[in-house]
Write a structure and sequence with these properties.
alpha+beta; 4-stranded antiparallel sheet; 4-stranded mixed sheet; extended
Length: 1018
């Protein structure tokens, strides 16, 4: 503190007064500052008063405000988690009671009436759990995931399905400045309300295009920003040129940057293959080029460009697969292959053209004959100039022999747009392969100038400007998929879908009860069901879409062990013997034994026939006539050894697929060096064993099926299709065209009915879906239609109806010809499938034609066809008196009978609701086998509930620890504020009192000084 000093001699009064006033002002300022500190409890008012302390204070106060909000978040989260845990605790008693009822229902002494009563109790339990599942706390649905305003569970169309409308994601809140904590548990984690995904097995590797983003390449890892280096090697000199690609966003940017670089030495043309980049040089370019990285960069490798690999004008550089990821904007036409294309580059600007095929693949095939209609790859695009062509009338034509599309243009007045029009018009007319031409974006200077550049060419010269390449794969089938979910069947077509996003949007329609997304690897789609209590299946909708996506729930690769909800397909194992034939020659060491590879009587009665060889050099010739059941082995009698016979049998195609031929060692050592003579033996002793089910064809042929050795559904189909009694292939077995399941198409005809019977002790046919549970057999589900045709419908009393005697496609395309000939007769030409009548024009009546058939057709032909009088145009029956004329018609409309099985591999949502609903239904149906499975599902669901409660406990404990840490941190922050902002009250109070005393003393001294006069200095 300071007090006004005593005056000095010879000091002026004015100076003394000024010094006194200044001193009093300073003391007053200090008093005011202390008073403000005492009132505000702060050391300073403005940050400029203490810059360092103020900066530290602001940082601490900001942190404290955030920490205070974190504490509020934790308290709110704790409250919500406590409410969730309290709700889950109510489930324990309900699930315990349900399990007790399940165990009681499994008891063999429990009656049907008692099980029905238990089912009603389970139903009430489901309703209570349903209500708890929709519990709301503070206007937030507890189990709805991140969509807390959406009712999480709702009943389906009946009381046997429950649909989850929430999400698999959760709500998170900041429990600390850098810590996000889960605030809830969703219905998937607690109840298992969404099924495991049906993961697409197909790697959907989209084709790359100019618009493909670099960030989508390399499985989504993208391409780093940087440069690549071109090394031009010519005449033992190396010229290096770095090119910056850091500003490129799409592959078109990369192409444009490389092609438009200012390098004067080597112009490079960049094109896209089906899945990567390709570099080429103009024909006149000499020397070679290699691409290398710049420094430690990896841009070239990420762009799929082989480094240190030379390319020249004759040998372009082809990059590797860039592996772009699947996105919602990916076109469906690009996911299963790519389209052949080429870029036509001309001198000047605004005139380059892109030519792209309209379909994926290498060629276009005739759907009926399978013959190639047009190639798509390796098609030359050539130009020829003619001064007589008027601009605007340019044309395109195709030469199939040279695989060349020739465009006729004017030498110097044809613009690119006219070329594009000529190509597209010709493609639409079908006179050239199906290509679409468009302007290339690489050399277009402005959008309004696109395609206006001139394509110039010397007259009379044909120049090939490009060759198409890169066509791979197949086209996407838009027929869609069939989904069975919520006890409903949905046929979902993708006819109007263009992108993957369109497909996802369509499938995520709430009516289907699905959740569909692009998978984690971004190379396929995942499909999940939101509905519990029912089967979930994905099959075809008449096409191959589900197979293309790889999401068919039962395909050829489906393991039999996974069928029937994981219980698998049981192969009935019974005794069986393989047929065999012993060919014992008189010479030692020559005995042979032929054994069928499979057990069963179907391999009996095959003749092993040794005959002189037809080979001029005496080689052993092995052949097989499957229809006649004869195995011919051509030998040189008395010269060919047994070893030579065995070797020829095992190396030549034919019977080795069905039989083994070995040296017979039953009587001791057999070296096989003995010679073999002509003769024959017949297989016998084959006994069927382990027959799982039988299939009866329309013609009465019975196939005994043993699935022994089958691992997949495809193996089962192969066993049936390759059955020895089905060598004619009249019974074809495949996956269903609509939905899932095994589909038997019977092309045979006869008095029997397509039918599947299970053997007494086998459940295989039931587990494969061929027969319903509790039944012994199933007959055809589609009876088929008989082919027919009506002849002479406009002739009064002359119409004749020709009908196949049996259903099936065998009579389709059968031609009925009426020709001139005498005497009238009838013949059936089986080779050309023609019923041919020879008649006398103007004499033969319809009745005569019918009689010709009845009298001259063989019994076999009459068993195949029926010919009778038809009806007149007025609908009345024809009396057959009308005269017939020369004519030719074809029978159509026949369809085969089909037996379609159930889906053998249905899936389900492994949820608590599913377990309880399955339990209820099984009790109502008195199905103890399903009650046992539902009990296991319930146990699994209870474990999930317990795990969820444990998770909540862990989360709450973690939040408690965070809250304690925040409390400790708050104390530390308060300590910092005490030193940087807040005052020490006792210290400031003492200073304030001292200043008051100093101020009082200064006032007294000043008063005394101001009372002095001249007399004081005398």
């Amino acid at each position: 503190m300071s007090i006004v000093p005593l005056a000095f001699n010879r000091t002026s009064v004015a100076l003394q007064t000024n010094r006194a006033y200044n001193n009093l002002s300073g003391v007053q300022a200090l008093l005011s500052r202390y008073e403000e500190q005492l009132l505000t409890d702060n050391q300073y008012r403005y940050g400029s008063d203490a810059p360092y302390n103020a900066s530290a204070t602001l940082s601490v106060q900001t942190l404290m405000e955030r920490k205070a909000q974190n504490v509020t978040n934790i308290q709110s989260t704790q409250t919500f988690l406590s409410a969730t845990d309290s709700t889950l605790s109510l489930f324990n008693a309900l699930t315990d009671d349900a399990r007790a009822m399940a165990l009681e229902a499994i008891n063999t002494t429990t009656s049907t009436t008692q099980r029905n009563a238990l089912a009603q109790t389970v139903k009430e339990t489901i309703q209570q759990i349903f209500n708890f599942g929709n519990y709301s706390f503070e206007n937030r649905y507890v189990f709805a995931g991140s969509t807390t305003s959406v009712l999480p569970f709702q009943w389906g169309t009946d009381s046997y399905t429950v649909q989850y409308n929430g999400t698999e994601s959760n709500i998170y809140s900041w429990s600390d400045t850098d810590l996000l904590s889960q605030s809830n548990v969703n219905g998937v984690d607690v109840f298992g309300a969404v099924s495991e995904p049906v993961c697409g097995k197909t790697d959907l590797n989209p084709a790359v295009y100019d618009a493909t983003f670099l960030s989508n390449l390399n499985g989504g890892k993208g391409v780093e920003k940087g440069s690549i280096c071109f090394n031009y090697i010519h005449n033992d000199q190396v010229i290096t040129f770095d090119l910056d690609l850091s500003q490129c966003v799409t592959l078109a940017d990369v192409k444009r940057t490389i092609e438009n670089n200012k390098n004067p030495y080597f112009p490079i043309k960049v094109d896209l293959t089906s899945n990567g980049l390709s570099f080429s040089l103009p024909p006149e370019t000499s020397g070679s080029i290699t691409v290398t990285e710049v420094g430690k960069g990896t841009v070239a490798r990420q762009l799929g460009i082989p480094t240190e690999t030379e390319f020249t004008s004759q040998n372009p550089l082809i990059g590797r697969d860039l592996n772009p990821v699947l996105t919602q904007t990916t076109l469906l036409e690009d996911i299963l292959g790519s389209r052949a294309c080429t870029r036509l580059v001309f001198a000047g600007s605004n005139n380059d053209i892109i030519l792209r095929a309209n379909y994926n693949g290498n060629n276009i095939l005739d759907p009926e004959t399978g013959e190639e209609l047009f190639p798509l790859n390796d098609v030359n695009i050539a130009f020829r100039a003619d001064p007589l062509i008027t601009p605007g009338t340019e044309s395109a034509e195709y030469n199939a022999e040279t695989k060349t599309v020739l465009i006729n243009i004017h030498p110097d007045n044809t613009i690119a747009n006219n070329v594009i029009r000529a190509i597209n018009d010709a493609a639409e007319a079908g006179t050239i392969p199906p290509f679409t031409a468009s302007v290339s974006g690489i050399d277009q200077q402005r959008s309004d100038l696109a395609g206006t550049g001139t394509v110039t060419l010397l007259p009379g010269i044909t120049v090939i400007e490009g060759t198409t390449a890169g066509g791979t794969g197949i086209d996407f089938d838009p027929s869609g998929i069939q989904v069975v979910n919520g006890n409903q069947t949905f046929n979902i077509s993708f006819e109007n879908c263009k992108t993957v996003g369109d497909v996802l949007e369509k499938l995520n329609d709430p009516q289907y009860g699905l959740y569909v997304s692009i998978n984690e690897n971004r190379n396929g789609i995942d499909i999940q069901s939101r509905i519990s209590g029912t089967d979930f299946c994905i099959g075809e909708n008449g096409g191959t879409t589900a197979t293309q996506f790889g999401v068919r729930t039962a395909d050829l690769d489906s393991l039999l062990t996974e069928f029937d909800f994981g219980r698998g397909v049981t192969d009935y194992e019974g005794p069986g013997i393989a047929a065999a034939a012993l060919y014992d020659n008189v010479t030692p060491n020559s005995s042979l034994i032929l054994t069928a590879r499979n057990e069963g009587k179907a391999w009996n009665d095959y003749t092993l026939n040794f005959v002189p060889t037809t080979d001029p050099q005496g080689k052993v010739i092995v052949s097989m006539d499957e229809t006649a059941k004869i195995i011919n082995i051509g030998i040189n009698p008395g010269v060919t050894t047994a070893c030579e016979v065995v070797e020829a049998f095992n190396t030549q195609p034919g019977p080795k697929q069905y039989f083994n031929l070995e040296l017979n060692t039953a009587n001791g050592t057999n070296t096989g060096e003995g010679v073999v003579y002509d003769g024959f033996e017949t297989t016998s002793g084959g006994i069927d064993g382990g027959i799982d089910f039988t299939i009866t064809r329309n013609d009465g042929t019975v196939l005994e099926i043993d699935i022994h050795g089958a691992k997949t559904l495809g193996d089962v189909l192969l066993i049936i299709n390759d059955h020895p009694d089905n060598r004619d292939g009249l019974l074809s077995v495949s996956l269903a065209k609509f939905g899932n399941g095994i589909e038997l198409t019977d092309k045979s005809f006869g008095e029997s009915v397509t039918r599947v019977d299970r053997t007494l002790l086998s459940t295989t046919a039931i587990e494969l879906g061929l027969i319903n549970m509790g039944e012994e057999y199933r007959t055809k589900t589609e009876t088929g239609v008989q082919a027919n045709t009506l002849m002479f419908p406009d002739v009064l009393n002359g119409s004749i109806l020709v009908t196949a005697k049996n259903v099936g496609t065998y009579a389709n395309d059968v031609k009925i010809e009426v020709i001139e000939g005498t005497p009238p007769n009838f013949v059936y030409d089986a080779a050309s499938k023609t019923l041919r009548f020879s008649i006398e024009s103007g004499v033969t009546t319809a009745n005569d034609l019918v009689n010709l058939f009845q009298n001259q057709a063989s019994e076999t032909v009459r068993s195949m066809f029926d010919i009778q009088n038809g009806t007149n145009s007025d609908g009345l029956p024809s009396n057959g008196s009308g005269l017939v004329t020369l004519n030719s018609v074809t029978m159509t409309g026949g369809t085969d009978s089909i037996l379609k099985g159930n889906d053998p591999n249905p899936l389900e949502t492994d949820s608590l609701f599913n377990a309880l609903i399955r339990l209820q239904v099984a009790m109502e149906k008195n199905d103890t086998r399903e009650i046992e499975r539902a009990t296991q599902l319930l146990d699994s669901s209870v474990e999930r509930l317990d795990s969820s409660r444990s998770l909540i406990g862990v989360m709450q404990n973690s939040l408690d620890n965070v809250q304690l840490r925040l409390a400790d941190e708050n104390i530390q922050y308060e300590t910092v504020l005490n030193s940087t902002l807040r005052i020490d009250l006792s210290d400031v109070s003492l200073n304030y009192m001292a200043q008051q005393l100093a101020y009082q003393a200064s006032m007294q001294v000043t008063s005394a000084m101001l009372q002095m006069s001249l007399l004081n200095y005398l």
